[in-house]
């Protein structure tokens, strides 16, 4: 029994060793990535339906690896989270997104926000509000031009601290959005207690909106309830004209998705916004 136990232990140990080595390779690769400049951001515009105006963009991370080609964020962000490198990468994303918006501001785009995705590790670190405030000050970007996107699970993971943390962002003047709304377990009643400004309805509800009465009911209910709480509502993953019509009829504030535009390189996104004319979408 002792030998078997020991064998089990060694097997576990070996397995751990492999895991540790793999992580080291991945984080090594990811670390080099930051140095080599293999990461870049793309930007996806958001359209305010009532005004017909582009009011914001979401910054989305891309890794173009010399060795492995284009790697989707759904693959490398979980790795970056496991290795802790998401802290460095996340700060790079924040800085790069703010720098881009500052450049666009100099092209006359002042009435625009950039939304940046925040991972749980970033929110958990005690000094994240200071990091955000320092980046904004360094770049001299008005805080009102930045929105942080947090998922429900990120907030639920540390519910006690979430409210206080979020309050410090609001005091900075930064907007706060709940991402992927509807996929977690939080209710609008819970969110009511958090100082958030925007809800992003997950694309899982939008995809079948015009065919599935349940998704339609959920979407229209979320819009109505969010409005009664004074929150702004963005629908993400909007791909068709029919979806836009539904969302417009149900007073959704903003849409984001392939229907409007795919995520674009910074220069292309700037051109897209500058060429946009209200009414063009109708
Ligand atoms: P997300 O925050 O929900 O971002 C929206 C995702 O939906 C993006 O995928 C975007 O390209 C995609 N999308 C946009 N419009 C449409 C549409 O009409 N139809 C469909 N089917 N998809 C659409 P992407 O860029 O692959 O990003 C995947 C996820 O990776 C993001 O989901 C986010 O959770 C994470 N992510 C991306 N960039 C960052 C980052 O800088 N930091 C962190 N922590 N996470 C990030
Ligand atoms: Ca917005
Ligand atoms: Ca997002
Ligand atoms: Ca989302």
What are the salient characteristics of this protein?
12 helices; 282 residues; 8-stranded mixed barrel; EAL domain-containing protein; binds calcium ion; disordered N terminus; binds ligand C2E; alpha/beta
Task: Explain what this protein looks like in three dimensions.
There is one protein chain. By secondary structure, this protein is of the alpha/beta class. It has 12 helices and 10 strands. It has helices at 2-36, 73-83, 86-106, 120-124, 128-139, 152-157, 159-172, 188-191, 203-206, 213-228, 241-249, 266-275, and strands at residues 39-48, 53-65, 69-71, 113-117, 146-151, 175-181, 198-201, 232-236, 254-256, 264-265. Strands 1-2-4-5-6-7-8-9 form an 8-stranded mixed barrel, surrounded by 5 helices. The longest helix is centred in the first third of the chain and has 35 residues, at 2-36. The N and C termini lie far apart (74 Å). Ligand C2E is lined by residues 44, 60-61, 72-74, 77, 90, 93, 117, 119, 179-180, 203, 236-239, 257-258, 263. It comes from Luteimonas composti.
SSE class: alpha/beta
Give me the side-by-side strand order of the main sheet. Answer: 1-2-4-5-6-7-8-9
How many beta-strand runs?
10
User: Fraction of residues in helices?
Assistant: 40-55%
In percent, how much strand structure appears in the residues? 15-25%
Question: Average pLDDT across residues?
Answer: 88
Sheet having the most strands: 8 strands, mixed, barrel
Helix and strand element order? HEEEHHEHHEHHEHEHHEHEEH
Low-confidence stretches: 1-10
- Overall 3D form: globular
Cα-atom Rg, whole angstroms?
A: 21 Å
